[in-house]
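ugh ok fine here u go
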Amino acid sequence: MKDFDHLMSVWQAQPKKEPLSVDEVLKQVKSGVRGLTNRIYWAIVTMIATIAGAFIIMFFMAFKSPATTIGILIIVLTMVMYLSMILRHYHILKKHDLTQNPSAYLGSLKEYQRNRSKVVGWFYYIYILLLSAGLGLYFVEVLENAPLYFKLITYGSTFLWFMFTTFYIKPRMIKNEEEKLNLMIDRLERLQGQFD
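structure:
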């Protein structure tokens, strides 16, 4: 019985959650979403520049082997698929104005989070596979006259880079973004709970 009384006193002594300031929450959420959209925006700009560069290489460089052109085409199509995905995510985040309809905005953030976690999981592996196939075909002609050790270094370093990004960078990047989204969604839900 003493343990129960002690537990009750500890539980009752817990500090109450103070009501959230509407202005502060809106400012924090806007700042968080702005950070996400800025990062996506620069990813879009970078991807467009990379696609343009790949097109220039594909159309203005004379390759002897059709495998090289097919490899570059696979790389370009893969990047276009990725670009369309991040454009969609960018539009989801920019679709609603937080100050006009917070409930709809909360819904759009949840939709973005669901969509992002579902798509990023399987799409990333397809993206890496297609990029690897495209680079493999591209390197056939480009490294045709290179010594064996240089070919091994090139293929090995490309393989290691893909493994590093897949198993080290990707999980940390996704976890970081998920934490930020969860924090924003939690703040908006707590704020919404104050007015219900």
